[in-house]
Write a structure and sequence with these properties.
single chain, 497 residues, alpha/beta, 19 helices
């Protein structure tokens, strides 16, 4: 069944008209001057450099965006189209070569929502693109309403995800970079002291790592201490950093601790547990590695730490869940765990309680309390710092927040998609171990020679490592953008190295 007819506009342009179920033609563009119509539409664009077009039509809007005076600043164009047979008709009738051959343009045909979300999350870089704009081709969208409506919904969801990531980068980008550089130097020192480091991580005192227990710091941990005491005799216990003081107070010593937080206050977790092997994200505060007698670094999600992990072959863990419990599950899998049991992973506030007793906040608030502001006052401020939803289950109640709900959802998704892999941490010592400091020297030189305008494949990789830092610098200096922002970022990073 034919999907389109081709009309001729007054200025002789080819205008596709889509046929509805009744065979009625609906021109997708003006039949007078479709180019002028496209120009008026694109004039509503501000400085957004990532454009999404819902519907291809005759391609007039896309062509105008790419070829006008201001088209040079467009960095990425995504076209979403449905109905492959109809699209075949359009490609036979209209020459789209100038659009499709532009390296900035991508066409998704009959995409499932996950494909759209993945594309946006992977390719949209707010710090470089000054925003994103969606242009629906209304006559086309109306005919395929349900499909395009679903596309718009997933676009909004993907933007929220990217925006949340960008917000985190804007707050912590400078700390991440500085911490990674300092921790790489600490790692170099440890390797000089022990030629086998980090490839002979540790061997857990006769325990099998097949059955791992992860202790998070939720309030339910309080009632699980008796069971954990039984489990510690035979099972491998991984403590999240926040849960460590609570476990030690209860007389439970975990086998390892994991920490991913880059904020300095995370050292509060370790006043009593510096003797326990500590797995640290390379972006963690350097003071944690300095306090620990057995620090073992891993690469989280920062592009620079990932680049380093590929060269140095250190452990790379999945930290995309945004919380340390999620990262602990990734560590357990990397260590070869066949089963993983979670304790204290509430991802909510049961009965309005935020953390298990014994975590560092309790002594911290106890020391600050006075007659007019008892400890409970500080915990109330902590609890109500964000919006809460009260829920009921099993005869009790708890509070949820959007962030905690997202954490729980991410962990549930990981459980559904995880695949068993061979252990990647415990291995024999390498006979030769290269110092890691040359990595920083080589990286600094690659930064110096990086071309922002036309980077090659290696240059694009290096450019990616700058983006979290660039987001933080732009947050502090909103007036700078483009090449000036990247140059400022390069200078800042080179000085830190």
């Amino acid at each position: 069944m034919k999907k389109y007819t081709i009309k001729t506009a007054r200025n002789n342009s080819k205008v596709p008209a889509i046929l509805d179920n009744n065979g009625i033609e609906h021109p997708l563009h003006s039949l007078v001057d479709p180019q002028k119509e496209a120009a008026r539409l694109l004039d509503t664009r501000k400085d957004e450099q990532f454009l999404i077009f819902l519907g291809l039509g005759g391609g007039f809007s896309v062509a105008h965006a790419l070829n006008t005076v201001h088209g040079g600043d467009i960095q990425l164009v995504l076209i979403i189209e449905y109905d492959r047979e109809g699209l075949d008709e359009l490609f036979k009738a209209i020459d789209y070569t100038p659009i499709i051959t532009d390296p900035r343009v991508f066409l998704l045909v009959d995409p499932v929502p996950a494909e759209i979300e993945s594309f946006i999350v992977r390719r949209y870089q707010p710090v470089l693109m000054n925003g994103m704009r969606v242009f629906p081709l209304r006559a086309r969208v109306d005919v395929e309403y349900e499909s395009f409506k679903a596309a718009e919904a997933v676009i909004s969801r993907a933007i929220e995800q990217v925006s949340a990531d960008y917000s985190v980068q804007a707050h912590f980008g400078l700390q991440w970079f500085s911490h990674i550089v300092r921790n790489i130097r600490t790692m170099s020192r440890l390797m000089q002291e022990n030629a086998a480091y980090p490839h002979t991580y540790f061997h857990p005192n006769g325990k099998s790592m097949k059955h791992a227990v992860i202790a998070a710091a939720g309030p339910s941990l309080d009632r699980e201490f008796p069971l954990l005491k039984e489990r510690q005799i035979r099972d491998f216990i991984i403590a999240t950093d926040t849960s460590l003081p609570a476990l030690l107070t209860a007389g439970i010593e975990p086998d390892v601790v994991i920490s991913i937080d880059c904020q300095l206050w995370s050292y509060n977790h370790f006043f009593r547990g510096t003797h326990i092997p500590l797995f640290l994200d390379l972006a963690s505060p350097p003071v944690l590695a300095e306090r620990s007698v057995a620090p073992y670094f891993f690469s989280g999600g920062h592009p620079l730490s990932l680049l380093f992990s590929h060269q140095q072959e250190i452990l790379a863990l999945d930290t995309s869940g945004g919380n340390v419990t999620y990262a602990a599950v990734s560590l357990a899998e990397a260590l070869g765990a066949e089963t993983v049991d979670l304790f204290g992973a509430d991802f909510s506030y049961p009965l309005g309680v935020t953390y298990a007793r014994g975590t560092w906040l309790y002594p911290f608030y106890d020391k600050q309390q006075h007659r007019l502001s008892p400890t409970e006052t500080f915990f109330s401020h902590l609890l109500y710092r964000t919006s809460l939803e009260k829920r009921y289950a099993n005869g009790s109640w708890y509070y949820e927040t959007p962030l905690l709900t997202m954490y729980r959802t991410k962990l549930a998704e990981r459980k559904r998609t995880v695949q068993k892999v061979a252990p990647t941490v415990v291995s024999a010592a390498h006979s030769e171990q290269m110092s890691v400091v040359p990595f920083l020297e080589v990286y600094r030189e690659r930064l110096r020679s990086l071309s922002f305008r036309h980077p090659d494949a290696d240059g694009r990789l290096i450019l990616t490592t700058l983006l979290p830092t660039a987001a933080a610098l732009k947050h502090r200096n909103p007036e700078i953008s483009g090449d000036l922002l990247l140059e400022t970022t390069r200078e800042w990073c080179m000085k830190r190295i």
